[in-house]
Amino acid sequence: MAISLRDTPIKRKLMLVILLASGFALFLMGSALITYEVITFRRSLAVNMRVLAEIIGSNSTASLAFKDAKSAREILSALSAEHQITSAAIYDSNGQIFARFPTDAPLTDFSLTPQPDGQRFQGAHLEMFRPIMLEKNRIGTIYLQAALAAMYARIAVYGGLLLIVTACAALGAIALTTTLQKRISQPILELANVATAVSEGQDYSVRATKHGTDEIGQLTESFNQMLTRIDESSTALMASEERLRSALEEAEAANKAKDNFLAILSHELRTPLTPVLSTVAMLEEDSEIHTRIPRELEMIRRNIEVEARLIDDLLDVTGIIRGKMELRRQIVDIRPLLEHAMQNYCAEEAGRKKLRVSTEITVSETHALVDTSRMTQVFWNLLQNACKFTPPGGAISIRVYNEFAREIAPELGHDGLGTKLIVEIKDTGIGISPENMSRIFNAFEQGERSRTRVFGGLGLGLAISRAIIEMHGGSVTAESEGTDKGSTIAIRLPTVPTPATKREKKQEDPAAAKRAPSKPRRLRVLLVEDHLDTANQLNRLLSHAGHEVTWAATVREARELVSARANQPGNEFNILISDLGLPDGSGHDLMRDLASDHPIPGIALSGYGMTEDIQNSMAAGFSRHITKPVDWQELKTAIQKIAVSET
Ligand code: ADP
């Protein structure tokens, strides 16, 4: 009921309230009136009856005294004038009925003996017994009975009147409601309509009309104020969203520009390194010079490699941030990778600084699904840091061991065991303070500036290493007891079951040994390079290695040279070594063109070394993509591989 009343329209509620209020007032008034009537009627009836009883009693004393029943009946018959008296009787002193009215009324209608004096209401009658006294003696009793019908008739009339008044009041209430509704519910309904329009149309410019200054008027005003405020805030919100979208677009554009800039920068930085590195490679191959200045040559090579690594790190971190670093994973033994990194990147520096390097390798599971070059990069970073941050005379201990746990990754190990390979690199160096511990894995963050600046670096090695290891499903942690207390950096990698060993594979394939070239073949090389120094150096190195080199500086020249040689059977080029950014086009276009008319294996040389650059070179048809500065050994191996496969 409460719920249905709550849901009833205001107009009906108003009508109901008026009806109930007026009905209740009428009911109270009617009840009071009727009660008053009943009480007054009864009181006056009782008084009348008492007077009648007195009169009849005093008139009938003689009849009783002389036992004259006839005269007593005559006295009683006078009551016929009193229409409310229905019956009456006179009892003698013995309590016997002496006379009765009406005379023909059956005796059974009367009480056989008089009842105690007094008056009482019995059903629809009022009965009265009173003594008849002669001087001070009771000589009989008078009994009177009056009907209350007249009273009920009056009550019925009052009831009827009340009903008529109530009906009139209801009609009045309906009329009143219609008038009041306009004043009370209409503004509320209007307000509700405006609210619906606002919420459906999201139009905050509409306003409700204020009809007065009462509570509804105040409500309308507050509602309009609220709309004004919502309107203002939504306009402000839209403006700020717009600003944000354009703060975002600019940031994206700036980000793209930055990526682009980094790629170009690295290209431009790498290119001049190539001729220097090639010259060093050439000088290293000259035994006389190499014996004379081995340290100087090594120093030049190391510094160029460090610089190239810094450039690579910058590119890598951009790739990681953009989620563009891709892994080429294969199952490999991690141990040789680590040993190679130690020999190549640690041994020399450790020797120079007189660092004691010890290794403890206690592993059974050493294979993991990794990208070898990325893994080498991680080892290189960590070993380089250990050497860099440990003062001369310190110690570096490398521990490699397994952790077996069922709950780690059951799908990765034997017999449901999750086996991890842990490589721990511990040093006695400058240590890491607790406050720096949380920062050192962030890109471009270094430990205490005053100390680490001395050692150089960009603060990228750990960030890149952690990203690479996490991409392999592993983790990197750093521990240190504090400044100058040394550090321990640990890598945890999930292992995979050991595959058939290389030796076993070789035994299975004895022809492979026969196929291996003992001496590199003399090749006719088409070198396409527009950077003069690089071209000269590569030309020298390739010629020195016994190859016949023809040089072109543009795509057009290269095409012409290939076409010309195609007409000289036995004199076609065996291999194309081409830079990618050429003055009149790209090395990719050249490779694609040649593929249709004069297919020739190719090696791409580029200052761009991101995963997508390498993929683009492969898609264009190159067999290898070598990033500048060109490592001569790498180029030599690549040429050799192509030469073998071409035989
Ligand atoms: P970078 O070596 O170029 O500074 P990294 O990202 O490799 O950058 O290292 C970040 C910082 O972590 C270093 O600057 C150094 O403060 C701290 N750190 C890394 N390895 C070690 C270590 N073995 N001993 C002490 N501090 C280290």
Structure notes:
This protein starts with a helix and ends with a helix. Residues 407-416 and 502-518 have low confidence and may be disordered. The strands form 5 sheets. The protein has a 5-stranded antiparallel sheet. It has helices at residues 2-7, 10-59, 61-65, 69-77, 149-201, 215-270, 273-285, 287-292, 294-321, 334-352, 372-388, 434-437, 449-452, 461-471, 502-508, 511-515, 532-544, 555-566, 587-597, 611-620, 632-646; strands spanning 85-92, 97-101, 118-122, 125-134, 137-147, 330-333, 356-362, 367-370, 395-405, 418-427, 475-480, 487-494, 524-528, 548-552, 575-579, 581-582, 585-586, 602-606, 624-627. The chain has 4 domains: 2-37 and 152-244, no CATH class; 50-148, 2-Layer Sandwich (Beta-Lactamase), CATH 3.30.450; 326-494, Heat Shock Protein 90 (2-Layer Sandwich), CATH 3.30.565; 519-646, Response regulator (Rossmann fold, 3-Layer(aba) Sandwich). The protein is 55% helix and 18% strand. Helix 7 packs antiparallel against helix 9 (294-321) and helix 10 runs parallel beside helix 11. It is built from 21 helices and 19 strands. It has 647 residues and is an alpha/beta fold. Bound molecules: adenosine-5'-diphosphate (ADP). Residues 381, 385-386, 389, 427, 429-432, 440, 446-447, 452, 457-463, 487, 489 line the site of adenosine-5'-diphosphate.
